[in-house]
Specification:
single chain, 273 residues, alpha/beta, D-Maltodextrin-Binding Protein, domain 2, 2 domains, nine-stranded mixed beta sheet, two-stranded parallel ribbon, 24% strand
Length: 273
């Protein structure tokens, strides 16, 4: 009887040890397009070197958290979202939009709103133009609005904030071309990433010192590492640990380091997924 009890205890301890040290796989899905500086490369291949700031940050997280193994998949963005809904992947990086909380778990405050202190990244965008535009923009009157011409690269959506402003939109084939038109005075302004975290940046493709960003930024976006509801329910403690560990990693510095190596107009993109 004692030997049977002793064997039961040993087996129980063994099973507990396996559970304690077993790795949990986190299946992370991200877009199969080049979205620099967050994700570099295109297609389904996961780059071993220079994968982008977001993937490098997740690899750092993987090393720092015991019991976690992150695997990566690249798919069209909507496929990633659909797979999260259907529990075919466990996590994506996404901004908060109404309705997403029905299938994605965001780090939240006590008020059940997304917690920006545990965001994966934070980007701000500014209007960018020459001195004359900046002066007229700041002194424009509500009831005597002057229409300005804004150059936007093809595929770049105008934010809801700027939709309310008096702009004529001139679409260009690239970000570089948009800045060229601003430099030459053909258009009044363009838009550009101007702040990562709390760090103001200048990443303009031309050297015209007259062209500057208008602060404060017109738009602030947070990207969150969000989990499928199934993964979160099954791994709540681990999920909370992941969000907490992310706050100790310097995502802004890593993003800026990548940004300095991806200044080409065709490479730089700021995702608002």
């Amino acid at each position: 009887m004692k030997s049977s009890l002793h064997a039961f205890i040993l087996v129980s301890l063994f099973i507990f040890s396996l559970q304690l040290f077993a790795n949990t796989e986190l299946r992370f899905c991200y877009e199969d397009k080049n979205v620099a500086p967050m994700f570099l490369g295109a297609g389904q291949e996961i780059p071993l070197n220079d994968p982008g700031a977001s993937i490098e940050l997740l690899r750092q997280l993987d090393k720092k958290l015991d019991g976690l193994t992150i695997s990566y998949q690249r798919k069209p963005w909507q496929r990633c979202l659909n797979d999260l809904k259907n529990n075919n992947v466990d996590a994506v990086i996404a901004s908060y939009r109404k309705g997403r909380e029905s299938f994605a778990v965001f780090p939240s405050t006590s008020n059940k709103t997304p917690d920006p202190s545990r965001a994966f990244n934070q980007f701000s965008s500014c209007l960018v133009g020459g001195y004359k535009f900046r002066d007229k923009w700041r002194t424009r009157e509500i009831f005597q609005r002057r229409a300005f011409t804004l150059a936007l690269p093809n595929g770049y959506g105008l934010s809801k904030i700027l939709e309310q402003e008096p702009f004529f939109i001139h679409y260009t084939h690239s970000r570089d071309k948009a800045f060229e038109l601003v430099d030459k005075g053909v258009v009044d302004a363009t838009v550009e990433l101007c702040k990562i975290g709390n760090i103001e940046i200048t990443n303009f493709p031309h050297t015209n010192k007259d062209v500057q960003a208008i602060y404060p930024p017109y738009e602030l976006r947070h990207g969150y590492l969000v989990f499928s509801r199934q993964f979160y329910q099954q791994n709540k403690k681990l999920s909370l640990s992941i969000w907490q560990k992310l706050t100790s990693l310097d995502s802004s510095k890593l993003l800026i380091d990548y940004l300095t190596h991806t200044r080409e107009s065709q490479s730089l993109t700021v995702s608002n997924r």
